[in-house]
Amino acid sequence: KERATSHPLYGLLHSRPNSRQTSFQFREMMMGHLALRGNAYAEIMPGPRGFADQLWPLHPDRMTVSTTASNSLRYRYRLGDGTERTLGQDQVFHLATLSDDGVTGLSILALAREGMGLAAATEQFGARLFSQGAVHRGVLEHPGRLTDAGRKSLRESIQQETTGLAKAHGTMILEEGMKWTQIGMTADDAQFLSTREFQAEDIARWFRMPPHMIGLLRRATFSNIEQQSLEFVTYTMMPWFVRWEQAISRDLILAQDTYFAEFLVDGLLRGDTATRYAAYNSAIFAGWMTRNEVRVREN
Fold first, then answer.
1. More confident residue, 199 or 106
2. 204 in Cβ contact with 214 (< 8 Å)
């Protein structure tokens, strides 16, 4: 294998896909569309470098895909002013996740909306719980009968004295024989922290994301994190790499028997130094790697 640095697509994919974005910005944006909505689109613009001189991202929320009588794809894209453009299959670079119709990918947000909705609700509940004070939840019992004005005054007084983080866990002063009875749940009663941690893991599970990658280190050790980091590349990232590589071959490369796109992930798959050097030593003495190839591999 040799890097085809003289090929017109090399600069397009490796350095600058269009006049506004770097390669990393383009891939980051496309991956955001792909991971969250199930599809990512870019218009293939011709120019001095050939039929694929630039790639301009198209927002998936504005795209409608249909099939023609000849079984090719037709893309209708809605512009900001409401007008529509129709693009052929050879004009669009299309990335898709798992599909149930062979045309468009399924949105992870749509599939996981219940779990993500619970996570959002938990977040809102926590904000409301602590903004109003996490302890004072119950009823005031008065031995007599309050007038409407007295009830309103009492409510406003209690609200003023107890609402807010600065006043949480404060002491209420009750008069006229009133008694406070606790009836609500505290954050511990509601298992608030456990629920939040579970929801974070649940969302990570949809994306095959190891817990330690999103800061959940409760059950992490050095040995299992190293192994999970390798598994992250193999089981989480590799399917995304394959989607990109095969979509590039399908939509952008004409001479597919000669050229191909590939993500280099050797650096991500490296083990610890001792294990790596032992493997290199074995490869050199077995004759299938040279010292210079090892130096190149180690950059």
1. 106
2. yes
* 264 Cβ contact partners less than 8 Å away, ≥ 6 residues apart: none
- Rounded CA-CA distance 140/157 in Å is 13
Residue tagged 């007038």 (tokens):
147
d(CA 247, CA 262): 11
Asked if residue 228 lies in contact with residue 209, where contact means CB atoms within 8 angstroms, the answer is no
Q: What is the pTM of this model?
A: 0.69
What is the C-alpha separation between 87 and 73, in angstroms, rounded? 9
| pLDDT tens per residue across span 60-94 | 999 999 999 999 999 999 998 989 999 999 999 99
Residue 26: which region, alpha, beta or left (left: phi > 0; alpha: psi -120 to 50)?
A: alpha
Strand segments, DSSP code E, in 99-221 are 138-141, 179-182
Residue 90: which of 26, 33, 38, 45 has the closest Cα?
45
Buried b (16+ CB within 10 A) or exposed e, 121-132: ebeeebeebeeb
**With contact defined as beta carbons under 8 Å apart, do 83 and 62 qualify?**
no
